[in-house]
Amino acid sequence: MSRFSSPMPQRAASDCPGPARGAPVDCTTCRIRHLSVCAALGDEEVSALEAVVSSLHLQPNSTLVREGDPRRQVYSVTAGALRLVRLLPDGRRQVAGFLLPGDFLGLSTAETHRHDVEAVTETMLCRFRAEDMQALRERFPDLERKLLSRAMTELDAARETALGLARLNPIERLAAFLLDLSEKRARWGRTEQLMVLPMGRADIADHLGLTVETVSRSFTRLRHDGVIALHDIHGVELLDRKRLVDLAAGRG
Amino acid sequence: MSRFSSPMPQRAASDCPGPARGAPVDCTTCRIRHLSVCAALGDEEVSALEAVVSSLHLQPNSTLVREGDPRRQVYSVTAGALRLVRLLPDGRRQVAGFLLPGDFLGLSTAETHRHDVEAVTETMLCRFRAEDMQALRERFPDLERKLLSRAMTELDAARETALGLARLNPIERLAAFLLDLSEKRARWGRTEQLMVLPMGRADIADHLGLTVETVSRSFTRLRHDGVIALHDIHGVELLDRKRLVDLAAGRG
DNA sequence: CGCATAGTTGAGTGCTATCAAATTACGTGG
DNA sequence: CCACGTAATTTGATAGCACTCAACTATGCG
Fold first, then answer.
1. Per-residue pLDDT for chain B (252 aa), expressed as one digit of tens each?
2. How far is B125 from chain A (nearest CA, A)?
3. Are residues B15 and B115 in the same domain?
4. Residue A54 bridge partners (DSSP)
5. Is residue B4 assigned to a domain?
6. How far is B23 from chain A (nearest CA, A)?
7. Cβ within 8 Å of residue A71, ≥6 positions away
8. Of B163, B168, B208, B246, which to mutate for an interface test with A (greatest number of A Cβ within 10 Å)?
9. CB B140 within 8 A of CB B48
10. Number of structural domains found in chain A
11. B163/A208 CB distance under 8 A
């Protein structure tokens, strides 16, 4: 049923936003739209970025960077999904976050990467050399400001996540996660009601600080309560958004 | 025993760094040193900042800003400690973080504040109007870069916190918290072994996603294991730093 | 000295993790 | 296209850790 002859799973393909829907995911249109929307760049900036960008294609579960790797490249995701992973010595795992189309990786000023970054599905990225990005930042002071603004937004988001991990119960965490994802997708003009979760239950569990079993039970509970519908494992429909918002805000 | 005749508690006074030790906490020396060290500014930048700064004095438990307040000022802490607080409708509380000398508040590009900000102890701050800060940022492009770098550092820290909340047990969380605080103090040239915790157990509990009882039991446990010594409620000595590091990294 | 607040300690419960088994999805080769 | 094997997910039973409730202790302040 895929629109692709390659073994690319449908859920990865459908993540390519806008004009590129149904076209190959590494299309230039997609890339330009991505760059300009995600950083709100002007035409000149987009051209300058296009000049130094190269593209990259990852298979599911392949590793893009490892914790401790020197930060030499800047990436931006155009299609697919990646996860930021940290492992504790005894196997405890945390997924710090997911990178979806429009997200950047490697803008941090840290010398090395702080997480393993792995492809969840087949993924397309734009790659810049860090020096090129640096040069662009010097040439376009505005870019610096936009990146700062973006970093601040992410910082707020990270603190929101922390609140959830500290004080929300499993159902509330899952509700917050589903809304998060839905909003991220909405920013790209995708339907808010029907959602595709690119990641598996284990990734969700490790993102929410729970076990797979608890995540599964929480899905089941939300389904029985008529808050969501599960069409298949990765296809979720948000039936009662208001209820989800209440749950995520701790008014469960 | 305080070096102050005012009712300022000793632990707040001892947070004024460097040359100002023993002098009034709002001294200009202290402020300049603070500004230049925390943002690594040049002389010219420091002068420009000094020109638009005014100072502020908070009593313990007073509120500086409330969640939802418009963001009109930028503050930097010179002495004392503040907490970033979020409350859920049913009373669940989270302390997203603490602001210690050298930390900024209000640099976010968000329109409104996302947390209540309350003084933990008597606190001194520098206050700039947000517009002045904006003007400075435009005048000194370098400042923008340093702020971005700082934001990235905080983002990394926030993700580290999230890992702890998701996957560490109470003892490990407390170990990580103590090390965090110790490192923050070390950056200001303060002793690493002996520490003063400005905040109470309830603030620590709400920061670590635990209850006061569990925090208290964890302190007791670390003390019995000879990892720390508690001289008084706020005075902690780190006896076995290596063990703390192992605990915080999940090698407990 | 007595009250109020903060912290510690103890007993019991409940929620979520753990362990185990059944069920469903999915890729592979017939 | 279907049968099979593997991996992922769901469901069930049990156990343990952290929360809750409660009592006690310490500290500070009038």
1. 333 333 333 333 333 343 333 333 444 445 545 554 455 556 666 677 677 788 899 999 999 999 999 999 999 898 999 999 999 999 999 999 999 988 889 888 788 999 999 999 999 999 988 888 888 888 877 777 888 888 888 888 899 999 999 999 999 999 999 999 999 888 777 777 899 999 999 999 999 999 999 999 999 999 999 999 999 999 999 999 999 999 999 998
2. 22
3. yes
4. A127
5. no
6. 35
7. A106, A108, A110, A111, A112, A113, A130
8. B163
9. yes
10. 2
11. no
